């Protein structure tokens, strides 16, 4: 298929044997489902556009609400478009968010609990996202000749708002509590001191009641950075393993990956919306649509945005794999414990149903982290280079 990499394949075989047939089958299934979800994610906006535009429903909604006349009516129309999308998407969200987790054996939530989480997230998402597009349409309407700087301002404001609200989103789904583990805390404090990052406390993410998946993060808190570890990971990993995971997260911090990623994403967003504006200019007068300033063109804009972001995902994944590799290298350097690195990789593969080595093209298109086999091979080479 591709150039053989015997060393990598040997690592993959070893990991596959360690995981066992059941987890491997689940990992393959999860990957197939992720790819299916991606394709459906491209098709859905087309279905929505077909539902709203040729039927004349988008125009009817606009006229009924007088949606181009006052800003709040524009906002309302956008919210209706998004709400209808969310409702139509709900069975898919259920299948790929709940049913899939049940089949993988990672779900620990009731259907009612899952649905309530979805409702809460949608209730927060729709006003936010529709506000972004409201800003765009108001700019398209008022400053048709200076829309680009306006678009940039809107994207920046939206990214900042999203960043500030991200802890709220996290806590909508999971509770956090301070974690009282003096030994682990001392170990992590020392790690932070070596990295030159200010330690801002230790918290546990109560994930176990909803999912068996493991995760950890280093998030800003006050002047320092708080370590948040899921109870699932805490339960399964030894302190060395936890230290490796947190060292990886610190790598992101030290390399300033989040601000870089935000700039990258923001630029992508501006580019995508600018193309969307061009599409509205060419196709936005179709039937009784009123051009770029008409909120009834929204389904067309959504479809354009979804397709361009789908294409950009490949670029974004390549960039993400690069920063993940660098964070792994940082973790190895800081902890000097490749054995712990390797066992925590295997543990995370088991908890999150990761496939050790997917086909090369799958990794290229869909993986935002290097595959586990590559990450383990990196740790072994690092050890080899030191010896
Ligand atoms: Zn990472």
Domains counted in the coordinates: how many? 2
How much of the residues is beta strand, in percent? 5-15%
Query: What is the chain-wise order of helices and strands?
Result: HHHHHHEHEEEHHHHHHH
Molecular shape? elongated
On the 0-100 scale, what is the average pLDDT? 90
Query: Span between N and C termini?
Result: 34 Å
Helix content: over 70%
Query: Structural class, please?
Result: alpha+beta
* Number of H- or I-type helical stretches: 14
Heterogens: zinc ion
User: What are the low-pLDDT stretches, counting only 5+ consecutive residues below 50?
Assistant: none
Total number of beta strands: 4
Strand order of the largest sheet: 1-2-4-3
Integer-rounded radius of gyration: 23 Å
Q: How many strands, what sense, and barrel or not for the largest sheet? A: 4 strands, mixed
Walk me through this protein's architecture.
The mean pLDDT is 90. α1 packs across α14. The chain is elongated. It folds into two domains: 303 residues, no CATH class; 78 residues, Zincin-like, CATH 3.30.2010.10. With 387 residues, it is α+β, with helices and mostly antiparallel strands. The longest helix has 38 residues. It has 14 helices and four strands. A four-stranded mixed sheet has the order 1-2-4-3. Bound molecules: zinc ion. Zinc ion binds next to α9 and α11.
């Amino acid at each position: 298929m591709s150039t053989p990499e015997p060393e990598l394949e040997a690592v993959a075989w070893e990991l596959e044997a360690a995981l066992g047939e059941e987890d491997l089958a689940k990992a393959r299934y999860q990957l197939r489902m992720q790819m299916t979800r991606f394709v459906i994610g491209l098709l859905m906006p087309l279905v929505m556009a077909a539902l709203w535009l040729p039927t004349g429903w988008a125009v009817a909604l606009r006229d009924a609400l007088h949606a181009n006349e006052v800003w709040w009516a524009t906002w309302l129309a956008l919210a209706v478009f998004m709400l209808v999308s969310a409702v139509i998407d709900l069975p898919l969200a259920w299948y790929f968010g709940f049913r899939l987790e049940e089949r993988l054996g990672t779900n620990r939530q009731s259907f009612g609990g899952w649905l309530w989480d979805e409702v809460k997230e949608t209730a927060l998402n729709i006003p936010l996202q529709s506000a972004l597009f409201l800003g765009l349409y108001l700019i398209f309407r008022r400053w048709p000749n200076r829309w680009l700087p306006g678009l940039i301002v809107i994207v920046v404001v939206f990214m900042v708002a999203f960043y500030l609200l991200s802890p709220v989103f996290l806590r909508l789904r999971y509770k956090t509590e301070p974690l009282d583990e003096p030994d682990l805390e001392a170990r992590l404090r020392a790690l932070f001191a070596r990295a030159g990052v200010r330690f801002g406390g230790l918290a546990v993410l109560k994930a176990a009641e909803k999912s068996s998946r493991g995760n950890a993060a280093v998030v800003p808190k006050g002047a320092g950075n708080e370590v948040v570890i899921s109870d699932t990971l805490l339960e399964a990993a030894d302190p060395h393993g936890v230290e490796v995971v947190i060292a990886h997260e610190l790598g992101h911090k030290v390399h300033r990956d989040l601000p870089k990623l935000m700039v990258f994403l923001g630029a992508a967003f501006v580019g995508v919306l600018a193309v969307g504006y061009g599409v509205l200019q060419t196709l936005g007068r179709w039937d009784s649509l009123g051009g770029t300033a008409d909120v009834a063109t929204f389904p067309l804009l959504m479809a354009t945005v979804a397709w361009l972001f789908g294409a950009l995902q490949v670029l974004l994944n390549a960039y993400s794999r690069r920063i993940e590799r660098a964070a792994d290298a940082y973790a190895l350097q800081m902890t000097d414990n490749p054995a712990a690195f390797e066992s925590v990789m295997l543990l995370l593969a088991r908890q999150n149903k990761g496939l050790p080595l997917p086909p090369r093209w799958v990794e290229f298109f869909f993986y935002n982290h290097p595959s586990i086999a590559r990450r383990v091979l990196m740790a072994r080479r690092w050890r080899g280079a030191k010896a």
